[in-house]
Design goal:
binds coenzyme A, about 120 residues, Acyl_CoA_acyltransferase, single chain, globular, Aminopeptidase, 3 helices
Length: about 120
């Protein structure tokens, strides 16, 4: 949760889905405060905290046309790892971020991904 004074502006909520994975269930920024760099620092703070707790990967699912969250997470080092059909929400893009560089390298080698500028 991030505050502007005493007003809550940005939040993220999630839970452990297995001993090394934290699932980001939902998050948002108040409509009048979007595109003002509230969510990016909130993510950075949460990701650092999750890493300190011992998590190795962070996952999430998003509607395919939600450019704002997809672009934000791609720019924070998440990758797309699939598309799922959820009977409640329809098609969702699945994303994952490896919190440790060696695991990200292993993932890239396993799928023979070529190097890209981040
Ligand atoms: C997605 C959301 C949380 C982004 O929050 P935000 O505070 O506006 O994001 P930030 O200002 O921190 O943006 C950081 C980066 O994300 C990307 N981004 C954010 N909003 C974007 C948009 N509308 N279109 C494209 N890129 C966007 C940009 O790369 C941006 O960096 P830049 O400002 O240098 O271009 C906000 O739009 C929101 O609350 N949306 C509705 C709720 C929602 O969809 N939540 C996710 C549910 S899964």
């Amino acid at each position: 949760m991030a505050f502007d004074g005493e007003t809550p502006v940005a939040w993220i909520r999630g839970q452990m889905s297995d001993p090394v994975t934290f699932y980001l269930q939902t998050g948002g920024v108040r409509p009048g405060n979007r595109r003002a760099r509230w969510m990016k620092p909130t993510y950075l703070h949460l990701l650092a905290y999750l890493e300190r707790l011992g998590y190795e990967r962070v996952t999430s699912r998003h509607e395919p046309d939600n450019a704002a969250i997809l672009i934000l997470q791609l720019r924070l080092g998440f990758v797309v790892d699939g598309v799922v059909l959820d009977e409640r929400f329809g098609p969702l893009v699945s994303m994952v971020k490896h919190l440790h560089p060696d695991q990200r390298d292993e993932y890239r080698q396993r799928f023979r991904l070529s190097a890209h500028d981040q």
